[in-house]
Design a protein that fits this description.
mainly alpha
Length: 213
């Protein structure tokens, strides 16, 4: 499998517009997009604030009016990502009281997020160790909370007799891996759309937990 940085950079880089301003967008948003593309393409350690300033056409003093440090940008990008996918999960689960449908829709939301936000997925998997301890602890807590969201659904399905799994813990990990794997291979110009992939992975999720009806 190709290295995540080079693969992601092939499909979205600063030169492709990953950090360029669109009408009506805030400069902060432009800086975050540029940082995301650069961190994936060059690595966090290999990206300088000068690189970032060049990507958004800003000199040092102007750039520092919008961002305190490279570390703050990395922490904000990872926090934004996990909050976004958690919100998508919560919205999906809230649409029904049927635990099997809840899990299916949660998996579909999980897959859609990772297919549509591949750079965020690469950054989250590659650069967690680049966070300062205080930032890393917060991101790990958010990730654990997201993991528990899936575990609660699996446990509820098992308790109700709807799911048949030997290990709810391993089933939860497998469900989460579905999304992260999609981020590696999915392409917008591929054979299947985001929604098609999400629906098929929903089917796989139901088989994985042994839905009984």
């Amino acid at each position: 499998m190709a290295d995540g940085r080079s693969t992601a950079a092939t499909h979205l880089s600063v030169a492709d517009g990953g950090g360029r301003a669109d009408a009506g967008r805030s400069r902060r948003a432009d800086i975050l997009d540029a940082a995301l593309a650069l961190f994936v393409e060059r690595g966090y350690a290999g990206t300088t604030m000068d690189d970032l300033g060049a990507a958004v056409d800003m000199k040092g003093p102007s750039l520092y009016k919008h961002v305190r440090s490279k570390q703050d940008l990395l922490a904000e990008l990872m926090s934004r990502s996990i909050h976004t996918v958690q919100a998508a999960h919560d919205a999906a689960v809230a649409t029904t009281d049927d635990v099997a449908v809840q899990l299916r829709r949660a998996v579909e939301a999980h897959v859609r997020f990772h297919a549509r936000n591949r750079l965020d997925a690469f950054l989250g998997s590659r650069e967690l160790g680049s966070l300062a301890p205080e930032h890393r602890a917060g991101i790990v807590r958010l990730r654990k909370a997201y993991e528990r969201s899936f575990r609660r659904l699996v446990d509820a399905g098992v308790a109700s007799g709807r799911f048949r799994v030997r290990s709810p813990k391993l089933a939860t990990f497998a469900l989460l891996d579905m999304g992260t794997g999609v981020a590696v291979w999915f392409r917008d110009d591929g054979d299947a759309s985001v929604d098609e992939v999400a629906y098929l992975y929903g089917d796989l999720a139901m088989r994985l937990v042994g839905v009984t009806d």
